[in-house]
Design brief:
Layout lengths: L3 E4 L2 E3 L2 E3 L4 E2 L2 E2 L4 E3 L2 E4 L4 E4 L7 H9 L9 E4 L4 H4 L2 H7 L4 E4 L1 H10 L6 E2 L5 E3 L4 E6 L9 E5 L4 E3 L15 H4 L1 H16 L3 H14 L5 E2 L7 E2 L2 H13 L4 E8 L5 H15 L3 E6 L5 H8 L2 E7 L9 H13 L5 E8 L5 H12 L8 E4 L4 H20 L2
Parallel strand pairs: 8-9, 9-10, 10-11, 15-16, 18-19, 18-20, 20-21, 21-22
Antiparallel strand pairs: 1-2, 2-7, 3-6, 4-5, 7-8, 12-13, 13-14, 14-15, 16-17
Helix pairs in contact: 6-8, 6-10, 7-8, 9-13, 11-12
């Protein structure tokens, strides 16, 4: 297994999960990586982050391509979630000489997850001297678990922030510039929307804290996906700042499911009207669209228009499932409205409205429903309805 040089004295030694297709219900069609890093000093060598348990042998093989395992003096646990910490006991057994450190909350998490396994705590500003290279630490609670921690090597100007700034991408390229910046930034947004969206306040504080530390950054090396270098870092941080404060643009996401095509026909006419009114619009059929990518479109959108026909007096299960997925992400501060069709009874719009309001969407608009198939008058009415929503979106600050 090949390691990859990040800087002169830091190596990537992680694992590539080419086949991962689901992460907490988040579709990952491109797989992911579990990134781990060796920081090489004159008197010590630190392994920053371990990996998911099935990939420990891959991690150890990559480490041994750089240095014998007995040379590792420190293991840093930036986060206790199993994709980073599940293999920790096996890694520790392979490196019994290594001192293992985590944030104070991480120490507790490791013990609870691994049946009393003991590691040492490091606090904000603590320093480990590796001889010519040092590591300093900044616990970052709720980015995205209470135990999360950033590790920084000032001599190499490298930040290792675990899940922050990551993406779910499996690739033989290690750097975003090699993979393609447009694609890498797209995946950065997909990851943020589906993992970090409910933690915007904590993210905003974390970014402010990083800026206040005065850490100089040439490299940001997350624990999933691609590594950021040089001028890319400013764009990455600026994106997180915007998302952390909930900055949005005049954009509407239309998501729906349909039975006999009536709701789909309404969605198409709504999209035309929204676009004509000057708003950006995207349309997704939930039956065929990965919900993680629908949610990524919602990241900078001001409104969600959700459509479903009525089945058994309620909404279709795909729409209900998507609302359950959104509930955990808490996409507040956005407008919403519902539309759809029905046959011999209504009910979907009532269920969708109640769920959207419970999640925290603002719903100042009437629902739009038609019986059976929409006709010309219905299409005219739904276009007028959508135009009114688009104007409200443009007025929303």
């Amino acid at each position: 297994m090949r390691a990859a040089k990040v800087t002169d004295n830091i190596w990537w030694v992680g694992a590539i999960d080419w086949n991962l297709r689901d992460f907490h219900g988040f579709e990952t069609p491109q797989g992911t990586t579990y990134n781990c890093y060796l920081v090489m000093g004159d008197t010590g060598i630190a392994l920053v982050d371990t990996t998911k348990a099935p990939f420990v042998s891959e991690l150890l093989s990559r480490i041994e391509s750089v240095v014998p395992l007995e040379k590792i003096t420190h293991i840093v646990v930036n986060h206790v979630e199993p994709d980073h910490n599940g293999g920790l006991p096996e890694v520790m057994a392979a490196m019994p000489q290594a001192r293992v450190v985590a944030s104070p909350a991480g120490v507790k998490g490791v013990a609870e997850y691994h049946n009393g396994l003991e590691v040492e705590a490091v606090k904000a500003g603590d320093v480990i001297d590796l001889g010519g290279r040092t590591l300093t630490f900044q616990p970052m609670s709720m980015v995205h678990w209470p135990d999360s921690m950033f590790t920084y090597c000032p001599e190499e100007r490298v930040l290792m922030p675990n899940d922050a700034f990551g993406q779910h991408v499996s690739s033989d390229e290690r750097f975003a510039s090699e993979y393609g910046l447009d694609a890498a930034f797209h995946e950065l947004g997909v990851y943020y929307a589906n993992i970090l969206l409910p933690l915007g306040t904590a993210i905003d504080k974390a970014i402010t804290k990083v800026v206040e530390t005065g850490w100089e950054l040439d490299v940001v090396a997350p624990s999933h996906g691609l590594i950021w270098r040089g001028e890319e870092i400013g764009r990455v941080i600026e994106s997180y700042q915007r998302w952390g404060v909930g900055e949005k643009r005049d954009k509407i996401v239309i998501a729906y499911s349909t039975m006999w095509g009536s709701t789909a026909a309404l969605a198409s006419r709504i999209a035309d009207a929204v676009g004509a009114a000057g708003c950006e619009v995207v349309v997704y059929d939930l039956a065929v669209s990965p919900i993680a990518h629908v949610t990524a479109e919602l990241l900078e959108a001001k409104a969600l228009l959700l459509g479903s026909p009525t089945l058994h007096h309620g909404m279709l299960y795909r729409v209900a499932g998507y609302l359950q997925y959104l509930a955990g992400l808490k996409p507040t501060g956005r407008l919403a409205a519902t539309f759809g069709s029905y046959g011999w009874s209504k009910g979907a719009e009532k269920q969708m409205r109640a769920r959207l309001e419970e999640i925290g969407f603002e719903m100042p608009f009437d629902d739009f429903t038609v019986k059976y198939r929409p006709g010309d008058d219905d299409f005219s009415s739904v276009a007028e309805w959508a135009t009114g929503i688009a104007e409200a979106v443009k007025d929303k600050q």
